[in-house]
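## tool: complex_structure
## caller: assistant
## args:
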Amino acid sequence: MSHSGFRSLLPQQDMVYFAILAALIFVVFPLSMDIFRLNLVGKYLTYAFVALGLVLCWGYGGILSLGQGVFFGLGGYCMAMFLKLEASDPEATKIQSTPGIPDFMDWNQLTELPWFWEPFHSLGFSLLAVIIVPSIFAYIIGVAMFKRRVGGVYFAIITQAFAAILTILIIGQQGYTGGVNGITDLRTLKGWDIRSDEAKYILYFVNGLLLFACLFIAQYVRKSKLGRLLVAMREREDRVRFSGYDVANFKIFVFCLGAAFAAIGGAMFTLQVGFMSPSFVGIVPSIEMVIFCAVGGRMSLMGAVYGTLLVNWAKTTFSESFPELWLFAMGGLFIAVVLAFPNGLAGLYQTWVAPRLSQWLRNIRALRPPLTTAQSRS
Amino acid sequence: MFADYSMAELMSIFAMQGFAGLTLFSVFVLMALGLAIIFGQMGVINMAHGEFMILGAYVTYLTSNIFAEYAQNLFSIYFFVAMILAFVATFLLGALVEWGMIRFLYKRPLDTLLATWGLSLILQQIYRSVFGAREVGVTLPDWLMGSVALTDSIEIPINGLFVMGLTVLISIAVFIMMFRSRWGGQVRAVVQNRTMAGAVGINTEKVDRITFALGCGIAGVAGSAFTMIGSTGPTSGQLYIVDTFLVVVFGGASSLLGTIASAFTISQAQSSMEFFLSGSMAKVLTLLVVVGILMLRPQGLFALKIRR
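## result:
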């Protein structure tokens, strides 16, 4: 990419925001927190992938998906299946009646590995599956819905139904999926112990880098023609259609991109937390992911990351000390964000902080000119 | 899978499962009627609808306790009092919510979804603090207990019959209100064209408030009926909310008849499959079929032919 292309992708102001976030994630958090807290932040950041996807789908495209948990979960499960197969080699599982299959299958009287588990012996396949399985799924939903011009509220309800279906399916098919407990007890990745402190540090940084990769992709979409078309479609879909654009294809693309982001988040979640369960797939977590995005500001990529961090941090702190109050706070947050600050933290920043900041910067610059003119004279 | 049963056994299985399906149908219809008014007519996504239903159930529970304590001789009719109280309580709460929250959001339907989800979290936590996390059940009066034996192998519980009768009555009442009364005409006028309705002298704000409150009130009555056939916990409402939305969407959002037809289809499909498959698989299959049909026919079963 040429220098000027890069400039237009990341204007100076956005560059500053990216740099601040990078400093926060890669320097401030690792230096100021112990590994337990850092791992927790890493876990929160995996939700930020979902929130990023939602900014593009919902904030820009106006497509509210209440089923992002499905993609988060599919990504997470693809990763977990690989790790589980590695953790249950015949040596480690020799006390089972059928050695070499995951322990929960043995408990459910399965005697051989189901066919769809077989390919997950390969790391390459699993990593591909993390992205491709959820994307294909999103593509199918997207084609079915958007080609028929179903959108808005109906789309939200149907994606929510998918979240419900997948949860019930995972819980019901215990023998194949691990049921309510999910896939637990994951130990190593190609012989590398993911539970050690060192591994947690490395995974945290990998997670951060992937998040930045996704941020750049999202920023690229936002700044491109596609980003403008998305906004136009959100405002007046029929006019965009009459201008000769195939509205459905843009929607499908952005929905699949959001799904792929969510899936990467899910896979990193599995790696950092060490298990995956249906409680990250269903309706409640999916709606919570929407609130992360709404709190941060549905139109702001940075806001989505900060919103996710803030809400999750609040959730952990509140539910540690006042478990009853958390649901009140969360419910109140939903209502307040919708009624009072529809643009979330980013909106507050834009209205209250940014004007003062630029005023202050202008004041500083106003002090400088006499100095420079004096220098130029001498 | 049918080979193990004789013909007569199969018949009674289908009859009993069909009846179980009818009970589920009643709950769906009662919940979906309120939602069809709020969502189908007003376009507001009320995710707290399940919690309104549970409020009705808790009111019924409280009333039954009060009657058992202070008016033992009137216990056999407590249910009717409870139903009225449940309606009043949920109606008032609904009006309050419309006044405090929904009226600002009519132009942003997706945001009503988030705001009412927040409301549902708050209500759930209130129920948990007041009534405890455990599920509570009511004591049925004697005349609702037992069952009617139709043949040797088919028995039908009386409380189920009662709930079904109630459903029919409420559906007829809603139908008359929406399509035969002056008020119903005003509601439909406001829904179709708010500006014009206002211009011909309809107080649209008042109509909105009463419509929303009425939808919630019906949910309260649904909750009251729900106590007859199941126990109530703080999160019971959430279990039904997705199903109910699917029922309404599947039926064609603005058609009350469609709502009833789709509630019937979904509940029958689910309960007859439940016997042969596990409960969860029956539910997954039902939901998948519904979603599949909705993808082929997004406007639902009974769509009104209107130009948009």
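## assistant note: Chain B has a mean pLDDT of 83. Residues 22-239 of chain B form one domain. Handing back to user.
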